[in-house]
Amino acid sequence: MTTPKKPKIATITTGAELKQWYWLKSDLIAEAKRRGLKTSGAKFDILNRIAHFLDTGEAEAQIPKPRIKRSKFDWHCETLTPETLLTNSYKNTQNVRRFFKSQLGEGFKFNIEFMAWLKSNEGRTLADACTEYRAMKQREADPNFQSKIAPHNQFNQYTRDFLADNPNLGIDDVRRVWALKIALRSANGRHVYAPSDLKLN
């Protein structure tokens, strides 16, 4: 299979075409800046913003966000107990770390999954958080456990799937095939491992 030449982002004229190619976030930020668009947000937010502009000639409508009252609970210095409620001002502070170590042992460490849980469970208690942490550690103890990979981390997911299917190959092989893969069009700009990828050249 011959890899087609990927167009320069500045030459693309429709949102549909833009979304058929893989772009680094830095590519999208540079193109958004060149077109006078906002550059904030996650990678796919910027992609959708540029696509919208290409199709309509307009920047995204600025929809005012509703004002949310911010909790004044100070996670740096407040006394924490198992009954303490998670607030929308939650932060991973040394104060919080000391509390979790007192409840879960000196081996406690923050990890991405647990930090995401804390941020998205306003109103739950720190006792609930401890229960969830123990459940996470139990899942991790399973020999077949695999951590979740965020949808935007395409390369990480591709690497896992590639190596699982080709245990005799290594990360250098992954990078070589990945570079060929992302030069191809895809229906939605996402690139998922397929055994036929080994035939790319």
Explain how this protein is built.
By secondary structure, the chain is mainly alpha-helical. The chain is 42% helix and 0% strand. Helix 5 runs antiparallel to helix 6. The longest helix has 15 residues.
Question: In a nutshell, what does this entry contain?
Answer:
42% of the residues lie in helices and 0% in strands.
Spell out the helices and strands N to C: HHHHHHHH
Q: Average pLDDT, to the nearest integer? A: 91
Radius of gyration based on Cα positions: 22 Å
Low-confidence stretches: none
Overall morphology: flat
State the helicity in percent bands.
40-55%
Strand content: under 5%
Instruction: Supply the number of helical segments.
Output: 8
Q: Tell me the total number of β-strands.
A: 0
Distance between the termini: 6 Å
Q: How does the major sheet shape up?
A: none
Query: What would you call the structural class?
Result: mainly alpha
